[in-house]
Each structure stands twice: as C-alpha cells, then as structure tokens.
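Justification of resources, computational component.

The compute hours requested in this renewal are based largely on the per-chain cost of generating structure records like the one below. Each record pairs the submitted sequence with a full structure-token output. That output is archived, and it is also reused by downstream analysis tasks.
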Amino acid sequence: MVDFRSWLPRRLRGDSPVVPLVRLSGAIGMPAALGRGSLSLSAVDGVLKKAFSVSGAKAVALAINSPGGSPVQSHLLFRRIRQLAEEKKLPVIAYVEDIAASGGYMLACAADEIVADRSSIVGSIGVVSASFGLDKAIARFGIDRRVYTAGTRKVTLDPFQPENGEDVEHLKTLQRDIHAFFIELVKERRGARLNSSEDLFSGLYWAGDRSVALGLADRLGTAHDDLAARFGDKVEIRLFEPGRSGFLRRRLFGGGAGSEAALVDFDNVLATIERRSLFSRYGL
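The structure output for this chain reads:
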C-alpha cells in the first residue's frame, strides 16, 4: 500500500513532534510609548494563543531578546503565558538570545526551564527610573516654569523644578515595593535552583555561564539544538512572531513657496531612542 502521507509537507504528516516557538523581541511597554516592535499584552496575546493552540504540541518555546521596560506589561505577559501553559498543560522553555534582563528576565521566568547562550546577558533583577534636572538651565535663560495644581503633591519630580527630597523618597518607596514583588516572583519560579549570592537581586546581570551557576538559567544551548536533543532530530519548530503595529506619521512643512513636505515619523524616532537607551544599559 502506498503511504500517501509521504507526499505531504512534513507538518501535515503527523509523524514529527511539534514545538511552537514564540519570538519575544524588543523593549517591553505600551505600543504608544515604545512604538513599533514593542512588547505588550495587547501586541502579543493573539500570537501566544495561537502557539499554545497548536495541535499535538509537545511544549511551547519562547525566544527572548529583551532589555525590559514596563514592569506592569512584563507581569501581564508573564501571567498570560503561565495561564495558557496551565490551561493547555504544556511545558514552557525559554531560550535567551542576546538579553533577558529586568522585565525581559521576568518573561523568561514564565518558562519552566531557561536556556541561555554562553554570551547571553541574564538578570538585572531591579527597578530603575531616570530623568534630567533642567531647572538651572531654564533659569539661565530667564524662563519660568508655571504649573498649577489642585493637590499639593500632584506634580512630583518635575525636571524643570528643583528636586524635592520628599518626592525622591516617595519614588524610592515605590521602587522598593516593585523590587520586592519582582524578587518574590523570581524566587517562586526558580525555587531551590537559585544560588544564595547576595548580589542576585542587586540589579547586576551576568553572562550565560555565570547565570547558570547562579540558578538564573538552567543550562547553555540554543533553541534548535536543545529542542532536537529533547524531542529528536525530526522535531518541527513552528515560528510565531508578533506583527508590527501601525504608527502615526505627522507632516512637517518647510517654509516658502514650492517647498516639499517632509514626512517625519516623530513617534518612531522617540521610540527608537528609548529602546536604544534600554539596550545600551547592558552594553548592547
């Protein structure tokens, strides 16, 4: 008897183990804040649902390359991955590419196993806020900052006003609360695998070998090699990647008759600067 299945594409034959691979790449935040290529629940949820719904899947893999970003969106994505994993009863394996730091590491913690490359950057379990103080600069040019509020603390840490010690302490309290929650999440997910190093939750980050020694990752490897070793050489890896969201373009008109209108993507320029600042924090 002729086996007509051999004429079909491999993914339709049903004789190979299947593992969906979801690519989570970019800074984490609302699309409006970080522009195209940002990671958020709204941007990724549809892809996650499709990946976890693949018939006959043996596991779901995550390819992570993120320097972090919004703690809220990081946690929303973490919870969604865990919810789908428990609902579908599928193991999740995270593969760190260049970086899984801060919120990017929180995404990795949604997996049951974390695999890193020898040169991957892993960790940065901490919280950071950054700004500029411009009050002296505007005073030099005789510029007054006028802000009117109902509520004595409505405006805090305004970069155009002198720094207020109470505002700084309020921010630090907020950071400590978020940091404590992040630490609790990592401890819950990694458990006894974690090394008791005092630097583990300091905000430092490490390369692949050291991250394994500290228990932040389970082993070194790449997605294709690791999945082949686990499920066999015939494993079929199906890639799922969030689509690029739309963006707003604004017209900037030059002066004078006959001048041409230049399209300037202000949102994407600012988003690119923000994303680059997040990646450059880790030397990337």
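The CA atoms of residues 216 and 228 lie 23 Å apart. The mean pLDDT is 82.
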